[in-house]
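Need Photosynthetic complex putative assembly protein PuhB's 3D structure for a figure. Predict it.
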Amino acid sequence: MSTLYQAPEHEFEAQPGLPEPLPPNEEIIWQGGPDLKAFALHAFHMHWFALYFGAMVLLKAIAVSQSVGGWSQEWPGFVWALGLSIAALVLIGLLAYWSVNTTMYTLTNRRLVMRIGIVLTITFNLPLKRLAQAGIHVYKDGSADIPIRLNAEDKIPYLHLWPHARAWKLAHPEPMIRCVADGKHVASLFADAWASANQVDLNQRESSPLNGNPAKSTNHAYGSDMALVKVGQSSL
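Structure prediction for Photosynthetic complex putative assembly protein PuhB:
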């Protein structure tokens, strides 16, 4: 039976990011949300949309300039294309802003709490003892994604998590701390919290990589089932 818990409370939070007061033996280690610029670029891919719509507007301008009527007759079509492109980019930007504005990640010494959602805000409570693996994808600006693999018996629907989910992991979705500033530091705090909750010695585990040959392994083992795996480094 899954111990994952979700709650729709947002307006009635006991404190920001938490639907209930923490018990006396639990404390907040880190709390934060996505960086807006990084989230717009890496979660909503604003730069690619801008490139796409820019190309469409350019092609429209070329078509108008080469048409029989020319700009004197065909300019309304260009204005429509330009206006729709700008409106689409503004809408994507607003979605990114609203997503960031309503997101709060809270790491305690016992769990990770993810408060996400724009229209319907949901809080996911992920006990550290039920998390199998974490990874980190670092971007050039220092922000990072931290995808988290759940135990096999635990599952959260992908659409409930998006955009706070690792891409293409549809069969067994992975929640993701997305586009947080100083991502390496947050990942380190997460690994330490997991190790403490599961009574694992990080130093001892790091000397025994998960995948055999230490010289070929890029994993840093944090227990028999837990590893902080570098899943990628972006040039953006």
